[in-house]
Amino acid sequence: MATRTSGNSGKRHRQRRTAIALLVVIGIVFLIFVGVKVQEIRMIKQWITDLGSPNVDLRRDGYLSLKGLGPKAIPYLRQVVKAKRGSLRVGVAARLIGEMGDRESIPMLIGLMSEPDDVIRRNAAAGLGYLSVEEAVPQLLPCIDASDDTLCKNAIWALGRIGRPAKAASPRLIEIFSKAKQTKRLQLACAAALGRIGDPAAIPVLSKELDPEAKDLDIVTAAVRALGDIGSQKAVRPLEGLLFRQMPDRTPIPLEGPKVEGPENVPLEIRLEILRALVKIGGPDAKAAVKKCAETAVSVVVKRAAEKALAEMKD
């Protein structure tokens, strides 16, 4: 009897020791977890602080670190925007919220477009662009004419991201794009936005830029791409005209070979972009132009690209 009692007592003693050991392990794990969490919060706060740093490297590192953190960073970024302390920090946080796809913050970002600070507005515009917010079109439209060049560009980019619902911006974008003394940066932004919005009214002004001899080649390429994005049959003729255009002898030929009739005197990159645009547009006229290019191209690169494009086009 005494032996049995002693055995039960020893068993209970071992169970108590096991329970105590388990509690110690749980306590250690909890302390480690708390320590890690505290360290993470400290790091996040430091990254938040770095968003407003005048040091570009620190600001970039903070931006990328918060972006890499994912959804866990969203509540902290919202707090920064709501606090409105430091225009650069608030602006970059707003941009990052949009880039991370936080649609719940859309009303807050739209509200920032009423702020007088251009730094905040230009970043909020970018954030709204990442989210393609249709409701933000009325707030973005006035920014097209902002004196701040970056705010203007970001608003144009955002309107382009929104696409067809931003059609109200087309007349002003067309006007800015065709302005004689316009910065290249804004022209490129306008061309991309007009293509995404898809308004056929932009075809005439975009077609006027299809002149590699007189125009900047980046602008020409952007105009070709925009015409393809618009996707109207009205764009086929001007694109075809450039594809088969023969430029003056003083224009360098991008590939080796004799000067012949056909599309060989238009820069290679532009010809390839035209083929891509014609594939997007589709239809019998576009297909006929691509087929002609495949049959007449001297450049092996262009010939193969045209043959591939032809195979992609439906009857």
Largest sheet: none
Record field, number of beta strands: 0
Counted by DSSP, the helix tally is: 16
Average pLDDT works out at: 85
What structural class results from the helix and strand content?
Answer: mainly alpha
Shape: elongated
Second rung of CATH, namely the architecture of the largest domain: Alpha Horseshoe
CATH topology type of the largest domain: Leucine-rich Repeat Variant
* Total number of distinct structural domains: 2
Instruction: State the separation between the terminal residues, measured CA to CA.
Output: 98 Å
Explain the overall architecture:
- With 315 residues, the protein is mostly helical.
- The chain has 2 domains: 58-162, Alpha Horseshoe (Leucine-rich Repeat Variant), CATH 1.25.10.10; 177-315, Leucine-rich Repeat Variant (Alpha Horseshoe), CATH 1.25.10.
- Helices cover 68% and strands 0% of the residues.
- The chain contains 16 helices and no strands.
- Helix 3 packs antiparallel against helix 4 (87-99).
- It is elongated.
- The termini are far apart.
Summarize the structure.
The chain has 315 residues and is mainly α. It has 16 helices and no strands.
Topology, please?
Blueprint: H1 2-50, H2 56-69, H3 74-83, H4 87-99, H5 106-112, H6 118-131, H7 137-140, H8 149-162, H9 170-178, H10 184-197, H11 203-207, H12 217-230, H13 236-243, H14 268-281, H15 284-296, H16 300-312
Helix pairs in contact: 1-2, 3-4, 4-6, 5-6, 6-8, 8-10, 9-10, 10-12, 12-14, 13-14, 13-15, 14-15, 14-16, 15-16
